[in-house]
């Protein structure tokens, strides 16, 4: 209701000026009477608790001139923010059609109208407005940012890439975004040749892009190019150590297919020392149990847990204790405890967005909550890896 009062101010001012003129022609008198009638109707609607109708009427009464222009901009934005997009559209459409406003103000109204359509989900009209405005120097960058938002909503990745490339020409920080968009396009291809081509393009724009490395590693492994897959996947440890646990299952298969167990053990040690990876420590402990003894594996897991305590690692340690224990009550209790820990682990999210804190058990590259790209990573620490 407060906003309505401030909407009334310019209308009331206009009313006072209109009524206070000394010499009034007949034509003006009729206009005055009409204005008075509508003003009173608006007030009545407001008093009879019909603010929606009152707002529409007051907007009609607001003539666009230099005095009320600011009110139009503020009201337009206010309505859009409140989700009353149809009203915002009315205001901005009204502005674009007024011959009295300057060219710059007309363009600003077109830009605002584009944002109204975007907020209303009328994507074709929003696109039309924003595309037309992106050649205007003053509006180019914001138009491109909103167009990106639009193409992300409509999943038109090829169009999104074109816009992001324009942004990256002036702003190198947009390069990782270009890479993510190429990954998105790659993931939708049926032909592996095209998938590979787009993932490679992603890596050109962001050489450390983990998403492309993981996808190419998987693809090459499935095609039988094990050594090539191994090379790109081991690179993830330097590119972003938080993701190495994601690559370890395929890496294990790559090393195994080349009968290089020693190479894999060496790499796992590197993952433990450089990335504190619990998954790597668990795989190492299993290798120790296989080649030496359960006791040695237990000792290794204990020292790994002292360096990096995690629930996952604790679960693995309990597993060794159970395997070494004699059949009896102690072993039953351990098994029950392990099941409890297992249950807790299944309840915990695996990934968290570093931008907004959104957490879940699926790895999204585009955060469903804050819409930021590449900020969701595997959780580390007690509940994570
Ligand atoms: Zn987020």
From TrEMBL:
Membrane topology type: Single-pass membrane protein
Keyword field contains Repeat: yes
Gene3D superfamilies the UniProt entry points to: Tetratricopeptide repeat domain (1.25.40.10)
Main location: membrane
A Pfam match: Zn_ribbon_LapB
Location in the cell: Cell inner membrane
Annotated keywords: Cell inner membrane, Cell membrane, Iron, Membrane, Metal-binding, Repeat, TPR repeat, Transmembrane, Transmembrane helix
Molecular function terms from GO: iron ion binding
Residues involved in Fe cation binding: 353, 356, 367, 370
Residues in compartment: Cytoplasmic: 21-385
Gene Ontology biological-process entries: lipopolysaccharide metabolic process; regulation of lipid biosynthetic process
Record field: transmembrane: none
Gene Ontology CC terms: cytoplasmic side of plasma membrane
Residue ranges constituting the LapB rubredoxin metal binding domain according to the UniProt record: 351-378
Annotated function: Modulates cellular lipopolysaccharide (LPS) levels by regulating LpxC, which is involved in lipid A biosynthesis. May act by modulating the proteolytic activity of FtsH towards LpxC. May also coordinate assembly of proteins involved in LPS synthesis at the plasma membrane.
Family that this chain belongs to: Belongs to the LapB family.
Name of protein: Lipopolysaccharide assembly protein B
Species per Swiss-Prot/TrEMBL record: Pseudidiomarina homiensis
């Amino acid at each position: 209701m407060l906003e309505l009062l401030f909407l009334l101010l310019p209308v009331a001012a206009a009313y006072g000026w209109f009524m206070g003129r000394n010499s009034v022609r007949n034509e003006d008198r009729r206009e005055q009477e009409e204005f008075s009638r509508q003003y009173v109707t608006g007030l009545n609607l407001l008093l009879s608790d019909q603010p929606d109708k009152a707002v529409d009427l007051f907007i009609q009464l607001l003539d666009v001139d230099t005095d009320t222009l600011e009110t139009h901009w503020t009201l337009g934005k206010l309505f859009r923010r409140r989700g009353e997009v149809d009203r915002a559209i009315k205001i901005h459409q009204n502005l674009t059609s007024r011959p009295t406003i300057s060219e710059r103000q007309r363009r600003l109204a077109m830009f605002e109208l584009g944002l109204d359509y975007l907020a209303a989900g009328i994507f074709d009209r929003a696109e039309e407005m924003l595309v037309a405005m992106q050649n205007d120097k003053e509006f180019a960058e914001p138009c491109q940012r909103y167009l990106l938002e639009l193409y992300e909503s409509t999943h038109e990745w090829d169009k999104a890439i074109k816009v992001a490339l324009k942004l990256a020409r002036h702003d190198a920080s947009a390069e990782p975004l270009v890479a993510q968009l190429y990954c998105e396009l790659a993931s939708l291809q049926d032909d592996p040749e095209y998938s590979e081509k787009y993932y490679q393009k992603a890596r050109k724009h962001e050489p450390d892009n983990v998403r492309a490395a993981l996808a190419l590693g998987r693809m090459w492994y499935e095609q039988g190019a094990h050594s090539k897959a191994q090379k790109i996947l081991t690179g993830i440890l330097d590119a972003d150590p938080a993701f190495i646990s994601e690559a370890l299952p395929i890496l294990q298969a790559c090393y195994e297919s080349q009968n290089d167990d020693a190479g894999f053990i060496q790499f796992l040690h590197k993952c433990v020392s450089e990335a504190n990876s619990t998954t790597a420590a668990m795989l190492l402990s299993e290798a120790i149990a296989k080649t030496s003894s359960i006791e040695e594996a237990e000792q290794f897991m204990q020292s790994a847990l002292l360096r990096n305590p995690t629930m996952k690692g604790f679960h693995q340690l309990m597993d060794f204790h159970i395997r070494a224990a004699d059949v009896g009550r102690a072993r039953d209790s351990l098994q029950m405890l392990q099941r409890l820990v297992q249950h807790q682990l299944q309840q915990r999210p695996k990934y968290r967005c570093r931008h907004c804190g959104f957490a879940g058990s699926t790895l999204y590259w585009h955060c469903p909550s804050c819409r930021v790209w590449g900020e969701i990573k595997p959780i580390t620490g007690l509940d994570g890896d």
